[in-house]
Queue: 3 jobs
Job 1
Amino acid sequence: MAEQVKKKPVDPNSAKYKLGKIAADAYVDAIEAKKRGEKVAWVSSNFPVEIPETMGIATVYPENQAAGIAARGAGTRMCEVAESEGYSNDICAYARVSLAYAKLKSCPEQDVAMPDVLLTSYGTLRRDYDLLSALKWRLLIIDEAQAVKNPGTAQTAAVRGIKAQQVIAMTGTPVENRLMEFWSILSTVQPKLLGSMKEFADVFARPIEADHDERAAEAFRRLTAPFMLRRVKTDKSIIADLPEKNTIDHFAQMHLEQAVLYQETLDRMLKQIMEAEKSPENNTPAGRMARRGRVLKLITSLKQICNSPSQFLKTSSLTPDSGKGDALLEILSQCADTDRKVLIFTQYREMGERLQDWIAQALGERPDFLHGGVSAEERMRMVDRFQEDRTVRSFILSLKAGGTGLNLTAASAVIHYDLWWNPAVEAQATDRAFRIGQRRDVLVYRFITAGSFEERINDMLMQKRDLADMTVAAGENWIGDLSASELAAVFKLG
C-alpha cells in the first residue's frame, strides 16, 4: 500500500490562512445578505469598496473568486464554458471564469452570491469593454459624468457602447468649458435628443456662446428640462442645514516695482504680436495658431507678474513682493483671529512653494502643499493632518491636483490666489470646503489685481456666466482671437 502523503498542518497565524479566512467570510457574508433580500455588488479590485458599504450593499471581488477557482483546478473547465458561449479567449482568463460562473450560477470550487449591481471604474470599463459591452444591462449609472464630456475619446466611446434599458448621468459640472460638453453627456443618455454635433453647434452652441442669444438659450432649456434633475446646495429644501457661502472679490493693489515690470512686459510682448501680424503667414492656419500661442504666453506672463514678480523672473523671495501676497497674509491673520482654517488654491506649483515660504516667514507655520507630484500616501497624510490637527491653520493646493475629490470641511475659508477663468473649475475647488458636513459659513476670497487685465477679464466672464445659470465659459482660449487693439485695451494698466 502506498504511503499516504501527510498534509502540513495549517498555521492559523500565517498571513495565507488569515487572508483566506477573510475572503471566505466575505463570500459567506454576501450569500447570507442575498438570502436576507439585500443587494450584492461585484466590484473591480480598484473600486473604493467604502461606497457600496455605506449604502448597505455587500461586495464581492469576482477576480478573487476566479483566482480561487483556478487555484482549485477548475479554471480550464470554466474558461471552456465561457468560450462555448461565444466569448473570445483573448479576454482575461479571470474574466472568462466570472462569465462562466454568471452562466452556470454555481461552481463547487468556490460559490459566491450573484450580483444585483456591478460597480466599476472608467479604466476597467475601457480594459474589459468587450466583456461588458456584450452584456445587456437594465440600468447604467454614469457617475462623475464629466468624464464623457469629450465625444472623441475612447472613454466616451466605451461608455456609449454599453447596452442598457435606461441610462442616468450624474455630475455637478455638466459644462466646464464649452456647451458642446453638455451635448456629449446628454447624447450618452438620450442619443437623438440634441441631434448631431453639427446640428447642435449650429442651433445652440454658437448662438448661445458667441451671441448670447436668449431665444436659443430658452429653446435649449425647454428641450433639456424634462431630462434634467438639478439639485444645488444652496436650495434649503434639499439641504436645510448647510451654512451660507459668501464670495468676496478682493482687489489687490500692485507694488510699484510690480507695475513697472507689468507695463514693460506688456509693451514688449504686444510689440512682438503686432510685428508678427504683418507677416504674410499670419493669415494661414499655422500663423493663426502661432499668434494664439503668443497671446497665451502673454497671459501667462502677466498672470505670474500679478501673482509675484519673482515667480515671473524665476528669482527667490522670502517675503511678499505683490499686492496679492500682502492680502494673503492679512486675511490669514484675520482667519486665525476668528479660528478659521483656510484653503489656498493656486494653479502654479512654483507659486505654491513661494506661498509656503511667505507664510512660514510671517506666521511661523509652514503649510503643506498638495500638488501633482505628491504621492497618494502623502496626499492622504496631508488631508488627515489638516482635518484633524487643530494647530494646522492653512493648506495650499494646486487647482488641478486638489480641486476635486477631497473633503476638507475643517476649512471655513477659501482663497483663490490666482483665478482659473473657468467658473466651474473654481466652484469645484471651493466645494472642497462648502459641502455636506460643513458647520460654519464659508468665506471665499477671489484675488484680483486691481487695474490689471485680471479685473477686465473677470468682468467679461461674469457677463458670460449666465444664461439660465449655465456655465458656458470658454477658459482663456477665446482671448487668443482678439485683435491687437482689443488686446491692448484688455491688458493695459489702470
Job 2
Amino acid sequence: MILYVTNIYNYPFIQDKIRDSSILLENNRQIWVFINIRPTFEVKLNTNILKPTLPKGTRDFLPLDIKKRDFIFTTIRHHFKLFGYDAIETPAMESLETLMGKYGDEGDRLLFKILNNGDYLQGVSDDLLERKDSQGLIRQISKRGLRYDLTVPFARFIVMNRQNIKFPFKRSAIQPVWRADKPQKGRYQEFYQCDADVAGSSSLYYEAELIRLYDGVFKALNVPVVIRWNNRKVLYGIIETAGLVDEFQLVTVVIDKLDKIGKEGVKAELMAKNFSEDSINILFDMIECNHLEELMISMKSETGLKGIEEIKEVMRHLESSPMHNMLKLDATLARGLGYYTGCIFEVNAFGVNMGSIGGGGRYDNLTEIFGLKGVSGVGISFGVERIYDVMNELQLFPKEVSQGKGILISCIDTESFPYSIQIVDQLRSNNIACELYPEGAKLQKQMSFANESGFLRVALVGDNERSQGKVTLKNMETGNQEMVTVEELISRIKEHSL
C-alpha cells in the first residue's frame, strides 16, 4: 500500500509506522514523500471540519448578482467619464492618524483597526493592560486601519501628489470601504462607494455639476430619487440662532438621526443633553421652514445668511435645463461627518425604505489637516450596495442584464471533440463568449447543464455537422433547431439576431 503525504514534517507520528521510505521529491518548496506502510495502519490526517461562515455585515455574490452589479458600476463609470472625472486608487488601509478624528467620535468607534505585525503586545505597559485602557492600548498595538470612506484618503492623496496634478483636479474612485456598524437591512460592514470629487476650486458651479451627475446616473439606472440638499453654513446659522452654537458638532450629529428616530426622538436626545426647551423649539421652527425667504427672516447669523446666498447661487446654475429627478432643499439635512463646510447632499430612492443611497458635500479644510492650506473640495458618493438592493427590490434591472449565457458548444461524440475546439477558437477570436462542454457525456446531461446554467443557445456538434463543416444551432427558449455554418453563426451573433 502506498501513502502520499505532503509535508511529512507535519506528521511525525507516521515515522513509527514507516516500513521503508523510498522517494523524497521537492517541488515548489513542497516535500512529497512516497512511503510504504503496513496495510493494517490507518492514517487520519484531518478530522476537523470547518463550518463555513461569513463575517457579519459581508456577503457573497453569485454570477447573476455580479452581472447586476456590473451594470451599476458600468453606468456610474460612464457618467464619471462623461463629466470628466479621472479615476484614481488609494490603498485599502491608511495610517490611523490619517483616519482618526475626521468622522466624529462615532466614526472613530466604527473604524476597523489593524493589529501591528508580529508580537503586537510587546512594549505595552502592564498598567495599560490592568486598567483595560482600550484607547491607550489601541494607540500602542495598532498603527493602521481600513479606510472608512474615500474622501479622507483623497485629501491625503492630494497633499502627497500635489506636484503631479493640476487644479482644479476632478477625480473618481470606485473602491470598497469598511465600517464596524451594526449590520441590518441596507447597512453592511464592507461595501463599495463610487465617489466623484473636485479639489482646488471654491466655485459653486461644481455643486450644480455634481447634482447633475447624480441626476444623470439615476436616470440611466431608472431609479427615481429625491436629491435632498442643504448647506452646513445654514445649519450653523440655525444652531447659532437657537443659542446652541457651542455644541454645533453634537447638535448636527443628533439632527442627522431625524430619519432614523424621528422628531420626538431627536427632541428627547437633545433634552437629555440638557439643552433648554426654548432653544430646541427655535431649532425645529427654523429647520422646518419650507422657503428660503422665510428662513432668511428668522436667521440671526451672518454665517447662516451666507449659506443661503450659496444655495441661491447653485440654484441659478441649475436653472438652464430641467432635472429628471426631484431636487429638494431640506434644512433638516445635517450629514454627521465633521469635515463638511458648505453644501451637503443626500439621495433617497422612492418606493423603498432603504435610507440614503448617496451623499456628499463641500469640505474646505480637509487638506489643511495634512499641511496644505487653501485647497477647497466638493464631492459626492454613490452607495452601490444600497443601489443594488433598491433595484432588486423594485425589480428595476433591465431584462438583458439578467439574461442567461450565450453559446454552449455541445459535442455529441468523442471524435467531434477536436472540431468543437476549433469552433470555440473561431468564436473567441471574433470576441464571442462561448463555452465547450468538457466531456462526451450523454446529450440529455449536456442539455440539462445548458438549461441550469442559463445558456440561451447550444451549438450541437456531431459526425454529421463535422462532415459538413457546420453546427446544429438550438434555441433553448423555443426548442427550434437549424444547421448553420460557423461563419453564419458568427455573423448572426454579431448582428445581435440571436
Job 3
Amino acid sequence: MSYILSIDQGTTSSRAIVFDAAGRACGQAQKEFRQHFPHDGWVEHDAMEIWNDTLALCQQALRNARVEARQLAAIGITNQRETTVLWDRKTGDPLAKAIVWQDRRTASACQSLRDAGHEDMVRNKTGLLLDPYFSATKLAWLLDNVPGARPRAEAGELAFGTIDCWLLWQLTRGKVHATDATNASRTLLFNIHEQVWDTALLELFDIPAAVLPEVCDSAGEFGFTCPELLGAAVPVAGIAGDQQAALVGQACFSPGMVKSTYGTGCFMVMNTGEAVESHNRLLTTVGYRLNGKTTYALEGSIFVAGAAIQWLRDGLNLIRDASETEALARRAGSAGGVYLVPAFTGLGAPWWDPHARGALLGLTRDTGIAEVVTAGLEAVCYQSRDLLDAMAADCGNWPTTLRVDGGMVVNNWLSQTLADVLGVCVDRPMVTETTALGAAYLAGLGVGLYDSLDAVAEQWRCEREFTPLLEKGERQRRYQGWREAVARVCQSPAGE
C-alpha cells in the first residue's frame, strides 16, 4: 500500500494527515499555534514555531496511522498563502516574525501606489489588486524595517518565501528554495500570463530578485526530505496554496465548477480554464499548473468567516465552543434583522476596503445571544452571495452547484442557509478537509500514483446535498439588508 503524507499549514493551526491511495485518511495530528497582534491591524506568526510544530505533527500522524516514512510515496504541502517569511540562507533562521495574509500594516503603501496610478499595470500582470493582503508590500516592509535586511537581501544572503517555501526549505535542510505557481501568483511579483517573476513588478515594489524562490509546477519532484527528520528520504511532490489545493480536492477540473472553503476566512474559487479578467473586483489567479500547462481561476476572498465565530467565543464569551452555534441558530431560526459585518481587518472581495471596521447592526430589546450568533453565521452566507454574484457577472452564467468544505460546513444549519441565501444547491463531500486531500492528490500526481485528473475526479463523493428552501422574495429582502449594513461600514464604495 502506498501512502501520502499531507501537510496542511493553516492560519490558526497546523495539521498533518496520512492518506492512502484511495484518498482515505489513515491517521492525523493537529495543533493550534499562537497568533501575535503587536499593533492594531497587525497579525504575525512565529515561522520557527510553525516549522517545529509541523515536523512534530508529521511524526505524530505517521505514528497514528501506523505507517513508516519508507511506506510513503510522497509528501504534499498546502499552506496559508500570502503570509511572508524572510530568513537567513546560511542559518535557516527567520529575521522576524512572519507577516500574515490578514495583516493590514501596508495599507497606506498600497494606497500610495494606487494614487500613483500603478494598479492597472499590477492587475494586468498579476490578476490581483493593490492590497496589503498580498506578499509584495509585506516583504518590502520587512526589508525596510528589519535592521540590515535590505543590503543583505541584495547580497543574496536572505531568502523569501510563503509558508510552503519555508517548510520545503526546512524539510530539505536548505537544499531547495522553491515554490509552486499557485503560491507565486499571490505575491504581486509574478506575471501569471508569462509565468515568470516580473522585472517591472520587482522594480515597483523594490524587491531584489536574489531573495526569490524557483517557481515549479504544482505537481512534480520538488526535492527529498532529510532522512533523519521522518526516518527516510521522502519526495515532496505536490505543493499548492490552500485554496487551490481545495479546488483540486473538490475535483473542480472543468471550467465553471465552483468550490468554497470555510475556515478562518472564506475563499470561493471558480475554475475558468483560461484567464478571465474580472470587472467586479475578483482576483484572476492560477488554479493549478500541471506539466507546464496553467489552469486559471477566479477567486473571491472573505477575510473573516470562522474567525467571526472565534470572536463570538473568545472576544464576547457568548459561546463556549463553535459546536454550540448550530443549536442556537436553529432556536433563533434567523437573525431577525440583526446583521454582523465582520470587517475586523477590513473587507475583502468585492469591496476591498482595508479601512472598513466591524459592526453589529439592527439590535432591538428582543435581540439575544442566539440572534447575535445566528447573525455571525448568516454573515458568512451573505458574503458568499457577494462573491457568487460577482463571479456570475464576470463569467456570464450562474452556477447551479457549489461544492463546500472546511471546518464550518459540518454545521448543517449553515450549509442549508448557504443554499437558501445563494439560491443554488450546496454539495458537501465525504471528506470536508479537502485542502489537505488536494495536496495529497497533487503529490500523488507528482509521483505517478494517479495517472490523470480524471482518476482523481473519480474519487470525489457527495456526502449530502442541500437544496434551496427559502422563498425568492424573502431571500432578496434579507440580502438587501446585508448590502445596506455593509454600506454603513465601508469607507469607499466598491469599485473605486
